[in-house]
Amino acid sequence: MQIEAAICAFCGCLCDDIVLTIESDRIVQAKNACALGKAWYTAHSRPPDLPAARVDGKSVEVEEAIEAAAILLTKARYPILYGLSSTSCEAQRHAVALAEALGGCIDCCTSVCHGPSGMAVQGFGEPTCTLGEVKNRADLVIYWGSNPAESHPRHMSRYAVTSKGRLTPNGRKNRTVVLVDVRSTPSSRFADLLLTVRPGIDFEILWALRALVLGRKVEPAGLAETGITLAQLTHLAELMKNCRYGVLFAGQGLTQSAGNQMNLSAAILLVRDLNQFTKFAIIPMRGHGNVTGVDQVLTWQTGYPFGVNFSRGYPRFNPGEFTMVDVLRRKEADAVLSVASDPAASLPAEAVQRLTEVPLIAIDTHESETTRLARVSFMASTVGIRASGTAYRMDNVPLFLKQALTSIYPSDEEILGRLLERVRELKA
Amino acid sequence: MIRLALKTRPDLPLEADTIRPDYFAQKTEAEIAKLPVLHGNQFCALGDFFNVRGGASDQLVLEGDLAQVKRIGTGMEYGQITIHGNAGMHLGAGMRAGEIVVFGDAGDWAGAEMCGGKIHIHGNAGHGLGGAYRGSRHGMNRGMILVEGNAGNETGSLMRRGLVAVRGDVGEFAGAFVIAGTLIVFGSLGRRAGAGMKRGTIVAYQQPELLPTFTFDCVYQPLYLRLILQTLQLEGFSIEEEWRTGAYRRYSGDLNALGKGEIFVYDQH
Ligand code: SF4
Fold first, then answer.
1. Residue B135 burial (CB count, 10 A)
2. Are residues A150 and A297 in the same domain?
3. Residue to test with chain A: of B15, B71, B154, B211, most A Cβ within 10 A
4. Chain segment A176-202, per-residue pLDDT in tens
5. What is the mean pLDDT of chain B?
6. Which H helix or E strand runs over A71?
7. pLDDT digits over A309-318, tens only?
8. pLDDT digits (tens, 9 = 90+) for A95-110
9. ipTM of this complex
10. Phi-psi group of B181: left, alpha or beta (phi > 0 → left; psi -120 to 50 → alpha; rest → beta)
């Protein structure tokens, strides 16, 4: 059997032109997908070999595990829900309701990748566009602190660099590509202009660029530490001002280096200033499949994109206070529910320490450090392969992911829905 | 005078925004002990965590390590709080008047968005001291914050009016996006100070790394600084004579914003 136009949900590109060949409930070929996408399809179409639910390492019925998880969570007085980046918006919606019912915190992977973008957007807005516009119009593409060739392999060919669009009929020839990074990466060879900067000084560079764009004076001494010269920056500022349609892709190199949200604020302000001269947009290079969706769902339901707390019954937002790493590091959380994410493997050691001390419940599509550590763990079907659901592309365009194979495990949506129902009963 | 001595250390964050002298002023000891505080996600009584002695006073003394106790004195309108120990997050945030003295450290966002009154921290302060919450248009707007130790990042960010003085070092982005107001740092001033400042003054006593959008103007002796330093001296800050009479290098910026802000750097020579 063949499925046309399937969507790969591995990275934020959400390529929707994948052709799947299915034989005896296995994906044998994923045409058009990149190496990462292929690996994702292969890994997640393997026949399941783990029990659907485990409590203290022992295989149990899903119902029993739901009961155990609900009891652990309702007993807690400062529980936190975390992850949600690789699941559907429908599941995310249940998670928000669950956090509200529990009076706990809810935070997503955004807080450790593009959370700073969220904070910057809140402060200064987001002059953005969709990837379709990039494909059809952009003649200047800047990747800042990002290595798309490895992190989003089809980003350049589908949307931003070689793709041909209405006003970019010759694809690559119509575009100027600029790469700003701290080292040369496999993406470097695609760049017309490569700026190698010292680590941790993005803010100074963006700030100087702003000044150059606005025609203000720049003190060359302030650039001494950055690794690039005033002449190089002036050239870039001219390129930016004179393009027809520019787009800045902000990678994690910006959000996760010294300055964090201020780097993003600077980038947003720069793009805002550029709109006095030409059309310019900024798009954060979101990593995981549906991490953009969590921000959307959380914002739609609570008003805030991540780091939300419901202790008082209504949502409050304060990154640094209600965000996962901080809540764990200060040993505040007294129960953790991780959904579609692996905090035990990805968070800093002091935070992981707390995960080992409190009841941990994990829902994931595969065995991970977190599911191994968890007191209660559920196996769920992967959205886009064995379950369907909505996901948002990195440019905030929602796409519906269809199920391709039969499901054996319940989906995240189903598990969270049942958990929510049980928690509500217990709380009543 | 009312004494609150911590008897049970909360194991979860305790939100105690009811600890306010203006709330206590008309209440008896028993009434105070019954005031609600939020422990994790459950409301408890203040008396569950504190031994309360005294009532009907706006002079408050807190004892114990209150690092887990958040929101002490937020929004207070008059009275005095003295804390013998550390204080948790949001100490005196949004306060309008009165005074808070901490003989210990204070958590993040101390004095954030305050609009009057005075906070004196004898230990260190955290991030966002006198600053703005995410998404807010401005940070502190009137009032005075004195810190004897160090302060974290974004000290006085988006400040609108008021005075912040830090004896020790401050982190990155001190005075970022300041609208107006004064920030004095006697220790080292972190990188990117004054980023995006419109107006306002930052005074440093060690040469900071300045952003490329600040330009050097001149060396002079700002008269009003003497008055501010004198005020600090009256508040118990030790001020050296040459700081008052010495010359300062003036830089103006941030040229990416209005550019009417100034950074003074004390000129040793
Ligand atoms: S670029 Fe991303 S979404 Fe597209 S096929 Fe590769 S991994 Fe999947």
1. 12
2. no
3. B211
4. 999 999 988 999 999 999 999 888 888
5. 94
6. helix A62-75
7. 999 999 999 9
8. 999 999 999 999 988 7
9. 0.91
10. left
The answer to whether B193 and B261 have CB atoms below 8 angstroms apart is no
Cβ–Cβ gap B41/A207 under 8 Å: no
Which percentage of chain B shows pLDDT scores above 70? 100
The Å distance, Cα A255 to ligand 1 centre, comes to 22
Residue showing tokens 């990462």: A36
A161, A236: one domain: yes
Whether pLDDT at A253 is above 90 = no
Q: Are A69 and A361 in contact (CB under 8 A)?
A: yes
Ligand 1 centroid – CA A155 distance (Å): 8
Residues A241 and A347 in one domain: no
Whether this prediction's pTM lies above 0.95 is answered by no
- Report residues whose beta carbon is within 6 angstroms of any ligand 1 atom: A 8, 10-11, 13-15, 33-34, 36-37, 152-154
State the best of B37, B65, B109, B213 to mutate against chain A, taking most chain A CBs within 10 Å: B213
Provide, as residue numbers in chain A, all residues whose Cβ is less than 8 Å from the Cβ of B213.
Answer: 207-208, 210-211, 216-219, 222
Ligand 1 mean position, distance from CA A154 (Å):
6
Q: Output the pLDDT for position A116.
A: 67
Residue A390: its H or E element: strand A389-392
Whole-number pLDDT of residue B63: 96
Question: pLDDT per residue over A113-145, tens digit each?
Answer: 766 667 777 778 889 999 999 999 999 999 999
Q: At what angle do helices A412-427 and A62-75 cross, to 10 degrees?
A: 50
Counting the structural domains of chain B, the total is: 1
Q: What are the backbone dihedrals phi and psi of residue A304, each rounded to the nearest 5 degrees, phi first?
A: -130, 150
Instruction: Count how many domains chain A has.
Output: 2
Instruction: State yes or no: pLDDT of B268 exceeds 80.
Output: no
Q: Scanning the structure block, which residue is given the tokens 């809540």?
A: A327
Q: Note the Cα B130 to chain centre separation in Å.
A: 5
Please report the residues numbered 20 through 79 in chain B whose beta carbons come closer than 8 angstroms to any beta carbon of chain A. 38-42
Task: Write the CATH number for A179.
Answer: 3.40.228.10
Asked whether the beta carbons of residue A208 and residue B38 sit closer than 8 angstroms, the reply is no
The rounded distance, in Å, linking the Cα atoms of A195 and B45 is 59
Contact B212 A269 (CB under 8 A): no
Q: For A373-388, how does the pLDDT look when each residue is reduced to its tens digit (9 = 90+)?
A: 999 999 999 999 999 9
Structural domain of residue B221, as residue ranges? 105-267
CATH code, domain with A90: 3.40.50.740
Comparing C-alpha atoms, which of B202, B156, B161 is closest to residue B181? Answer: B161
On whether residue A44 sits in a domain, the answer given is: no
Dump the DSSP string for A163-174: ---SS-TTGGGG
Residue A48 has phi, psi (to 5 degrees) of -65, 140
Question: By residue range, what is the domain housing residue A358?
Answer: 50-112+290-427
Which residue of chain B comes nearest to A223, CA vs CA?
A: B212
With respect to residue B125, please indicate whether it lies within any of the assigned structural domains.
yes
- Whether residues A302 and A324 share a domain: the answer is yes
The confidence score (pLDDT) of residue A219 equals 84
Which atom of ligand 1 lies closest to the CA of A33?
A: 5
When the pLDDT of each residue in chain A is averaged and rounded to a whole number, the result is: 91
Span from the CA of A37 to the centroid of ligand 1 (angstroms): 5
Give the pLDDT score at B68: 93
Q: 3-class DSSP state for residue B69? A: strand
In the prediction, which pLDDT does B269 show?
Answer: 60
Chain A residues whose beta carbon lies within 8 Å of the beta carbon of residue B15: 311-312
> Of A267, A284, A301, which residue is a domain's last?
A284
